[in-house]
Write a structure and sequence with these properties.
The chain is mostly beta strands. It is 0% helix and 47% strand. The chain has no helices and 37 strands. It has a 6-stranded antiparallel sheet, with no helix packed on it.
Length: 375
């Protein structure tokens, strides 16, 4: 699910549109394929927040749309539709081209993450004590199933025919995508609070100060303790697991063996997850600085103050970093030099990371708006 990979569906899509539950409009999907742009909350299953695409540093707001709830999730983008989860127990979708609302799906649980997208399906999970997880089939235009999932607050990982769930009580279990049947389960201590990552059939998650590597079938391949609680989100890049700790360091661990390769400092008081293109790491500080360090050596490369509080993690598109400040400013920063190339502002406070697809970024604001900004 990276670099705009395209998932072929079938020729029968050439003549149909897809209907969503509780919605009186159609989703106009491309006739022969559902293209993937930003299918996980951090872009891909590795949480890299990176898309390799050529863009021009010329920001312009193209459209805005209003949801019917405050504080929508960050977006995902799939098949020409921008999806966000809402705390009023549903997710909604807007056409990436013009912002027209085209999806409104009841989930029966508050959502702080957008649905994960792939293979013609949307995979969603809520949050709270009475949480639920489910699958919506875009090609059939209906919800396949929905079931309780305990106290999970991390988004799931989707591997082929299995969706893997992680809970605050330490439960990890695999559900069959076709019908939601539980296939396997294991338990770890303490609970799981950090978003996981995946690489094909291998899944990596953190519990306390430990990192686990398991198969999609629930077999533990290795585990390693790094001695410090892991926070933020795991990231997988260049064969390494990057694990931020509560003392503002990032540990690098071999994805193959679990060997600790080293640690380094990226930024102080980080605003959530990092972003990486496989060569550099981008980290935002809540005080308003955005900086880059070398993934290979951990050496600092540049740092630029944006003059505003940052809450949302940054993303990388081609040669540029996209950073959003809490007051609603959006900055394009050259990832090689740290020079600000352009900036604009939207009407609202930004606390969620943006998403990218085909020359546009999409960002949600705390007052319930979705903005599309051309790059």
């Amino acid at each position: 699910m990276k670099k705009l990979r395209k998932a072929k569906l079938g020729l029968f899509l050439a003549a149909i549109s897809v209907f969503l539950v509780s919605c009186d409009k159609n989703i106009a999907l491309p006739p022969t394929e559902l293209y993937e742009c930003w299918s996980y909350p951090r872009g891909d299953a590795g949480n890299t927040a990176f898309v390799d695409d050529r863009i021009s540093p010329d920001l312009k707001i193209l459209w805005q749309a209003e949801t019917d709830a405050l504080d929508p999730s960050s977006p995902t983008v799939y098949g020409g539709v921008v999806f966000v989860g809402l705390p009023n127990k549903k997710f909604v979708g807007y056409r990436a081209e013009n912002g027209e609302k085209c999806a409104d799906v009841w989930t029966d649980v508050p959502m702080k993450y957008p649905p994960i997208a792939g293979d013609g399906k949307l995979f969603y999970i809520g949050f709270g004590g009475w949480n639920r997880v489910g699958v919506y089939d875009l090609t059939a235009g209906k919800k396949l199933w929905s079931r309780s999932c305990g106290n999970s607050e991390c988004f799931p990982i989707v591997c082929d025919t299995t969706m893997v769930i992680f809970t605050l009580s330490g439960g990890v279990y695999g559900l069959r995508i076709s019908d939601g049947e539980k296939l396997w389960a294991l338990r770890v201590k303490p609970g799981i609070m950090v978003p996981p990552v995946a690489d094909g059939e291998r899944i990596f998650f953190a519990a306390g100060d430990k990192i686990y590597c398991i198969t999609a079938g629930g077999k533990i391949l290795w585990k390693v303790g790094i001695g410090k609680p892991i926070v933020g989100a795991l990231t997988l890049a260049g064969g390494r697991i990057l694990a931020p700790t509560d003392d503002d360091k990032i540990f690098s661990v071999s994805a193959e063996s679990g060997q600790i390769l080293g640690d380094f400092s990226a930024c102080k008081n980080p605003a959530g997850a990092i972003a990486t293109d496989g060569n550099i790491i981008i980290c935002a500080e809540r005080t308003g600085k955005v900086g880059a360090v070398s993934l290979r050596t951990g050496a600092p490369l540049w740092s630029v103050p944006l003059g505003d509080v940052i809450v949302a993690p940054p993303i990388i598109v081609g040669d540029f970093v996209v950073a959003c400040t809490y007051s609603g400013k959006i900055f394009l920063i050259d990832k090689n030099s740290g020079k600000v190339a352009d900036n604009t502002a939207v009407d609202g406070r930004i606390s969620r990371p943006p998403a990218y697809c085909r020359g546009k970024i999409f960002v949600s604001t705390q007052d319930g708006k979705i903005f599309c900004v051309r790059l």
